[in-house]
Amino acid sequence: MLDVRRLRLLRELAHHGTIAAVAEALAFSPSAVSQQLSVLEREAGVPLLERTGRRVALTPAGQNLVRHAEAVLERLEQAVAELAHARRGLAGPLRIGTYPSAARAIIPHALAQLASRHPGLEPMVTEVDPASVAAAVRAGELDVALVHEYDLVPTEPEPGLAVTQPVFTEPMYLAATAAGTVAGHRRSPWIVAPAGTLCRAMAVRACRAAGFTPQVRHQVDDFATVLALVAVGQGVGLVPHLGAADPPPGVVLTRLPMHRRTRTAFRAGAAAHPAVAAFTAALHTAVPPELGGPPGPL
To answer: 57 forms bridges with which residues in the sheet?
Structure first.
């Protein structure tokens, strides 16, 4: 009989490519991961791995087993969801991932709605860059998370992960000391997010679409700080609607033909879990009216 926990390790190895990366993602030691995968190979009775230097490639049998593992893990999530429906009332922890601007502008309102409807739930919020969400959700560190994508940086489907249709869509703005265009700032210093983030990729691609590579001066992962630096003449930047609230004096926001879309993500098979569904419903009520949320009180 194949062990589900070992199948999960094999699935993560298919995504991460190295024993060390799997160990880091799942908070195991590399030796423990290697040992468990060796046990899985003995259970399977055929070679599942081919080691090439530091990386580990899956054999055809290993790749086939990963496909089955994805289906097995999805069915287990469906079973968990059905069991949750059989209980009376929602209770216990709900681990929520979010990016910073939504954590400030959307999440508090959603949690208030969640508390009024399901007081037994214990939401636990963690800020996480959308680029890191898939690994955290698959590893069980998060149950549901807000993820976003930009027009110029569409996200690719992640195995083991399911996402909703967009919950809301934000316009993007050029933040500068005067109205202008992205192309008009080819010689300006730019304030962008750190490497490896979707926000950084968005800014770089927007500039390249305008015919130049940005001259990066500051690397900042906080839109309020971006606006503060723009206000004192330290450069220009791109900010979404949620990050553009209350700009400091001297900052001019020019709306661009670009957007950021936010969705919720969770493990494949967990869409029907009542806690996940309850959070998604509460999230919709927390979206500001200008972003497509429900109208405010008359």
So the answer is: 50
